[in-house]
Structures are given as structure tokens and as C-alpha cells.
Design brief:
Distance between the termini: 86 Å
Bound molecules: adenosine-5'-diphosphate, magnesium ion
CATH architecture of the largest domain: 3-Layer(aba) Sandwich
Strand order of the largest sheet: 3-5-6-7-4-8
Largest sheet: 6 strands, parallel
Shape: elongated
CATH superfamily of the largest domain: P-loop containing nucleotide triphosphate hydrolases
């Protein structure tokens, strides 16, 4: 009796299943896209081919519905399902949407701006929208000129900018805008808040990570060091970190940028006196020679744009 019951149940289940399946397929075959597709390929697909493709047709209709309402459970988010002919059967391919391609492109661009300890808002910075005031005109023009020259030939040496100006005048923001413009053209920049980097380097000594961290920074295709001279530098940071990075970039002719509250002359003074109060004018001079070789000094003036 048990056996009969089981078998009967199974039979009913199968029957239920079959009707459910048929209902489902009727619905699928009524889908306008499916109809258009089958119609367009009626010479290439026999009734048998179509029946063998039911699973794919079903998948298509399911995924299309999810796609239309942006259901997160869809197989390939951001990809639109499309019916294709694969020899004598139907297949579903997933085509990336314009939206997805645009988003991927933006991600790639952002990935080319490597910012370490930099303010978040530099991501919004753009040369096109950089507000031009008389005090910043020269810097903006020099930035535009660098970008033009570098895009034209990235293999030859181009002097970067040494942006001087008081707090909040837009120096860091301009670096961000330059990096963005170059990123859109496929070039990678590394932006570094130098005082924070100096602290990290001191901590790296104990962990034996100094050379590893130095390698990545000094070899960056485009390097932008922000806020040079904001903190007093120890002789070790000045000579073994800052000096070594500059030396390498000079040798390899790699574009480098700085921002500072100090003019080059003031920076030389700042680098002359060590944290311990000793005067080392020759060492400071050597550093400044490299800075001058690598960059052109440009004054920026204007109101403090922070918190306004
Ligand atoms: P600095 O590095 O010279 O101290 P920032 O570059 O940090 O100054 O700029 C200060 C503030 O002003 C930032 O919040 C930045 O977003 C804003 N800012 C600077 N320049 C512009 C600009 N051209 N357009 C819009 N906002 C700007
Ligand atoms: Mg700044």
C-alpha cells in the first residue's frame, strides 16, 4: 500500500510538474522578445531545436525581468541578457550596459590616482572647473602646460611645479586636478602627504620596511609631494628619505611636484636647521638643487578657501 501511495504521489507530482512546466513555457513563448527572436530565426530553428532550448529561453525571460527592475539577485548585475543563436540552439549572452562600462571606466580612472593620506575632496578636483582667480592664474596655466607637454611626450623630462602659497589657497586641490586630468589620459600619479609619509617611514625602520616603501614612492611615474616643510624634518628624513627620492627622480628624469607654505628660499632655511638645532647649510643646499632641477616655483595667492 505504501509503495502504491508513493508511486501515485510521484506520478501526480510528475503530472503537476509537467503542467506547471507547460504553463511556464507558454508564458515564456509569449514574451515579445522571445517571439521576435524565434520569428527572426524561424528558418534556422526547428520545433525540436526550440524545445531543446527551453531552459535558455526560460533563463532569458527570468533574467530580463530581473534586469528591468534592477533585481540584485540577477546572474550578472550590470549586464543585459540577450538571446543569441548558437548553431542549432538558443543561448543567452550578457551584454555590459553603457552604464556599467561608464562606471568601470570611472573606476579605472580613479585607480590611476594613488593618494596616500590626502584629503578626500581632491577626488572632485578638475582642471576644467578649477576656479581661476588672478592669484592662481599662473599656477593654473603652468599646470595646463605641463599636462599638454606630458601627454604629448611622456618619455622626455618635464619640470613639475613647486606650488607655494598660504594655507587654503588651493595648492593641494590643483595637484588633484592635474592628477585627474592625467588619469583620464591613462597616466598614473602618486600623491603623498609628505609629513604623514615621514612619520610612516620612521615607523618602518623598526619593521624593516624602509627600502620597500621607498621603492614604490621613488619610482612612481608621476610623484606629487604635498605640504613639504609643514613639519620639521629630521636629518634622516631630509637626507635618506626626501633626498634619496629626489636624487632618484632626477636621475630617472621623472616628473615630480611639490606644494609648500614655504618658498624655495624659505624651504632651504627650514632644511638647514635640523631638529636638534644644528646648522647644515650644505646638506640643505644639495636638497634644494634637486628641488630646483625637478620643478618650477610658482606663487599662489588668494583667500583661504577652507570652510567657506
Ligand atoms: P591648500 O593645499 O593650498 O592649503 P586646498 O587645496 O586644500 O588648499 O584647498 C582648500 C579648500 O578649498 C579645499 O577644501 C578645496 O576643496 C577648496 N578649493 C580649492 N581650490 C578650489 C577650486 N578651484 N574650486 C573649488 N574648490 C577649491
Ligand atoms: Mg594643502
Amino acid at each position: 500500500m505504501d509503495d502504491v501511495g508513493k508511486n501515485l504521489n510521484r506520478l501526480l507530482d510528475q503530472k503537476n510538474f509537467r503542467t506547471r512546466f507547460e504553463e511556464m513555457m507558454q508564458e515564456v513563448l509569449q514574451d515579445q522578445d522571445v517571439r521576435n527572436f524565434l520569428d527572426a530565426n524561424k528558418e534556422r530553428l526547428t520545433q525540436q531545436d526550440i524545445e531543446r532550448s527551453y531552459a535558455k529561453l526560460y533563463e532569458f525571460v527570468q533574467e530580463k525581468r530581473k534586469f528591468e527592475v534592477n533585481d540584485p539577485s540577477m546572474i550578472a548585475p550590470g549586464y543585459e541578457p540577450q538571446l543569441t543563436l548558437n548553431y542549432h540552439s538558443v543561448d543567452v549572452t550578457y551584454i555590459p550596459t553603457e552604464e556599467l562600462l561608464a562606471r568601470k571606466k570611472q573606476e579605472e580612472i580613479r585607480g590611476r590616482i594613488q593618494a596616500l593620506n590626502m584629503p578626500k575632496d581632491i577626488q572632485e578636483a578638475r582642471i576644467e572647473t578649477y576656479e581661476m582667480t588672478s592669484g592662481r592664474g599662473e599656477a593654473l596655466m603652468a599646470a595646463t602646460e605641463f599636462i599638454r607637454a606630458y601627454k604629448q611626450n611622456s618619455k622626455t623630462f618635464h619640470k613639475g611645479l613647486y606650488l607655494v602659497g598660504s594655507f587654503g589657497v588651493g595648492k593641494t586641490y590643483l595637484l588633484g586636478a592635474i592628477a585627474r586630468d592625467l588619469a583620464e589620459a591613462g597616466f598614473t600619479s602618486t600623491l603623498l602627504h609628505f609629513p604623514s609619509f615621514a612619520v610612516e617611514m620612521k615607523q618602518a625602520i623598526g619593521k624593516n620596511q624602509v627600502s620597500e616603501k621607498m621603492e614604490a614612492i621613488k619610482k612612481a611615474p608621476i610623484l606629487m609631494l604635498d605640504d613639504i616643510g609643514a613639519d620639521s624634518m629630521s636629518s634622516w628624513i631630509r637626507d635618506e628619505v626626501f633626498g634619496v627620492i629626489l636624487q632618484y627622480r632626477m636621475q630617472e628624469q621623472l616628473p615630480t611636484f611639490f606644494t609648500s607654505n614655504f618658498s624655495m628660499l624659505e624651504l632651504e632655511q627650514h632644511l638647514t636647521v635640523t631638529q636638534r638645532g644644528e646648522e647644515e647649510p650644505l646638506k640643505a643646499k644639495r636638497i634644494m638643487e634637486r628641488v630646483r632641477y625637478l620643478t618650477k616655483e610658482i606663487q599662489m595667492a588668494g583667500r583661504n578657501r577652507r570652510n567657506s
